[in-house]
């Protein structure tokens, strides 16, 4: 099983600042990585797939990068609606696995 | 508009069974793989199972293999998850999730979730 490790567990950021979230895979997954955003009481929302392609309707302030085992989600200028939990997910191998999540909170 | 409506959750005793449903609309159901993903209270996301568009291919997480069964009825645009021999650790919100394409294995639309509680 590929283990996905996200860091940090919690990120405190002020509105308008940049947020950088990391995701590491225990073995190479090429670019088979997705990022999701989840707000309390809601289902996850797909942000990024293929490590760097924004999903339909996702604002340009969200960007993804990386390949192999190291990946980054960057939110260039945090808006109030961006405070949430973010998960990465690999789809290279079975079973599909998620990271444990990074909570982005208001500083 | 794409819609996924999960249902069938509830309280069940350990060892019991439950069948979840996910009724979909707004896209060509048979052209997309579908998955179930669960989330235990206060925890992260765990993928449970996937089924191909025509239903011929399925995969399961080891934690549910042999106890859960995924299926679909393309004539009724509905996805199912039959859960048997339920354990306390199966307690979670269960989401159905639509594959972004035919077999991309990441998910662009999700249901609202249905809560399954396994407790005596």
Secondary-structure map with pairings?
The complex is a heterodimer of chains A (about 110) and B (about 120).
Chain A: E1 4-7, E2 10-13, E3 19-25, E4 33-38, E5 45-49, E6 53-54, E7 62-67, E8 70-75, E9 85-90, E10 97-98, E11 102-106
Chain B: E1 3-7, E2 10-12, E3 18-25, E4 34-39, E5 45-51, E6 58-60, E7 68-73, E8 78-83, E9 92-99, E10 107-110, E11 114-118
Parallel strand pairs in B: 2-11
Antiparallel strand pairs in B: 1-3, 3-8, 4-5, 4-9, 5-6, 7-8, 9-10, 9-11
Distance between the termini of chain A: 35 Å
Secondary-structure element order of chain B, as H and E?
A: EEEEEEEEEEE
What oligomeric arrangement do these chains adopt?
A: heterodimer
Q: Count the E strands of chain B.
A: 11
What is the 3D form of chain A?
Answer: globular
* Class inferred from helices and paired strands of chain A: mainly beta
Provide the β-strand percentage band of chain A: over 45%
What would a concise description of this structure say?
The complex is a heterodimer of chains A (107) and B (120). Helix content of chain A is 0%, strand content 50%.
What this model shows, in words?
The complex is a heterodimer of chains A (107) and B (120). Chain A is globular. Chain A is built from no helices and eleven strands. In chain A, the strands form two sheets. In chain A, strands 2, 4, 5, 6, 9, 10 and 11 form a seven-stranded mixed beta sheet that branches. In chain A, strands 1-3-8-7 form a four-stranded antiparallel beta sheet, with no helix packed on it. In chain A, a hairpin with a 6-residue loop joins β4 and β5 (45-49). The model of chain A has no long low-confidence stretch (mean pLDDT 97). In chain A, 0% of the residues lie in helices and 50% in strands. With 107 residues, chain A is an all-beta fold. Chain B is mainly β and 120 residues long. In chain B, the strands form two sheets. In chain B, strands 2, 4, 5, 6, 9, 10 and 11 form a seven-stranded mixed beta sheet that branches. In chain B, a hairpin with a 5-residue loop joins β4 (34-39) and β5. The model of chain B has no long low-confidence stretch (mean pLDDT 97). Chains A and B meet through β4, β5 and β10 of A and β5 and β10 of B.
